[in-house]
Specification:
By secondary structure, the chain is mainly alpha-helical. The protein has 8 helices and 3 strands. It folds into 2 domains: 61 residues, no CATH class; 119 residues, no CATH class. It has a 3-stranded antiparallel β-sheet, with helices on one face. Helix 1 packs across helix 3, helix 4 packs across helix 5 and helix 4 crosses helix 8. The protein is elongated, with a radius of gyration of 24 Å. The N and C termini lie far apart (68 Å).
């Protein structure tokens, strides 16, 4: 840490300038937390400042700890990372694109309804529902999912709109399951068909 030296007036000025920049950056970073009525105590805030300064001095991003040279690489697949509110919503929107981009807007709205209905049925969050093993087949091969999402980057705005509108829509008729019309899975006979949209058949549990 730079210390004040009577022989040099530059050190304290540089140190103060650096601390002010770090403090400003951290304050901006913590705005979402404050808006949620969760405010760090002075001790916790000071520790975060110290950690941020240490990371910055090591050439790392102050908040993620990742090398600054790597920050150009996307952390998530979605190009809407700057506009989507949280990771959970991003996973859901990616799922809508992978599962139903070929079915158009209504097809994505219907799959959005299924995600919401399954969340209630399984008492899980939306992200957990989407990533449950062997449920939404689009996630069975994550590398393939990443490649497909890159090719369908023009679908994100529509998928985001479909997800938000699916909260009050009823296209899927309360369905918790669906499959492509070209197949007939083993579980289909145990459920009742409630809707058909595009190439997807939707089911409610009896």
């Amino acid at each position: 840490m730079a210390r004040w030296d009577k022989r040099s007036k530059k050190a304290p000025i540089k140190l103060i300038r650096r601390k002010l920049l770090v403090l400003l950056s951290i304050s901006c970073f913590l705005l979402p937390t404050a808006s949620a009525n969760v405010i760090d105590s002075p001790v916790v805030f000071e520790r975060k400042m110290d950690l941020a300064m240490i990371r910055n001095s090591m050439g790392l991003d102050m908040f993620s700890g990742r090398p600054l040279s790597n920050l150009t690489k996307p952390v998530f697949f979605s190009p809407l990372i700057k506009t989507i509110n949280n990771v959970e919503e991003k996973v859901v929107i990616d799922t809508l694109i992978l599962e139903a981009a070929g079915e158009g807007y209504e097809g994505m709205v219907a799959v959005g309804e299924v995600i919401r209905n399954r969340a209630k049925f399984f008492h899980k969050g939306f992200e957990a529902v989407c990533l449950m093993p062997k449920q939404f087949s689009c996630w069975n091969d994550k590398q393939n999912a990443e490649n497909l999402l890159k090719k369908k980057s023009d679908c994100y705005a529509l998928a985001q709109k479909a997800w938000r509108n699916s909260e009050k829509s009823s296209l899927a008729g309360g369905a918790t399951d669906y499959h492509a019309a070209c197949v007939h899975p083993y579980w289909a006979d145990a459920y009742r068909v409630v809707s058909k949209i595009g190439n997807h058949v939707f089911y409610a549990r009896k």
